[in-house]
Design brief:
Length: 204
């Protein structure tokens, strides 16, 4: 068995399952559920990205390496964000100032770190998609979806600077944010599926 292919395929499966569960927990509003799956998603993302980086041709290695490095940066941010929610926020008695900074639903510092992380993830998918040379229709779709996903970098990075999410917090509006995340899940789920099919059909 090709271990490179196997690890990459498992990573794609992790992405597919965790993104689906993320959407499900968002819809039924179980924060601890989607916090937990978001702690697992980055592991699958690194496994998938490393697989695509490993198989890309030599004239695309720079783009692929950038994509893999950015995947590691994304994973660091996101795992810190959701580990904080599952541990410090969930288990400790926080004062008001700490709650405003650390509680995800307050749209404060930790929420901004989350958006920055997903902005970096978008850049990672862009460069990883750029490194691909599709050989079939499924891979063409995968490349296109990954590169278009790169546009999320701008909204994830610049929207928090406007203070939009702080205003949402003061208005007590959390439904709109959850719906936006569900829409992202609908977009990203095919990337997990197509990458799973990609590694499944790849010849050793």
């Amino acid at each position: 068995m090709d271990l490179n292919k196997g690890v990459s395929k498992v990573g794609s499966a992790i992405i597919t399952v965790t993104v689906f569960l993320f959407a499900l927990f968002l819809i039924i509003n179980i924060p601890m559920g989607y916090y937990f799956v978001c702690l697992i998603l980055p592991i699958g993302f690194i496994m998938m990205t490393a697989g695509l980086q490993n198989e890309c041709e030599s004239d695309r290695k720079v783009a692929a390496n950038i994509g893999l490095l950015l995947a590691a940066v994304y994973s660091t941010f996101i795992m810190l964000v959701y580990f904080t929610q599952l541990t410090t926020v969930n288990n400790e008695q926080l004062n008001e100032q700490a709650t405003n900074l650390l509680e995800f639903g307050k749209f404060g510092l930790i929420f901004n770190f989350d958006l920055l992380g997903y902005g970096v993830m978008a850049l990672s998918t862009f460069f990883t998609g750029l490194s691909m040379k599709p050989k079939n229709k499924k891979d063409k779709w995968l490349k296109a979806l990954m590169m278009i996903h790169g546009l999320f970098y701008f909204s994830c990075t610049f929207m928090p600077i406007t203070g939009m999410f702080a205003k949402m917090s003061s208005n007590g509006d959390g439904i709109g944010g959850r719906l936006a995340l569900v829409a992202w899940c609908v977009y990203f789920l095919p990337i997990g599926i197509l990458s799973f099919l990609h590694f499944g059909s790849r010849k050793n």
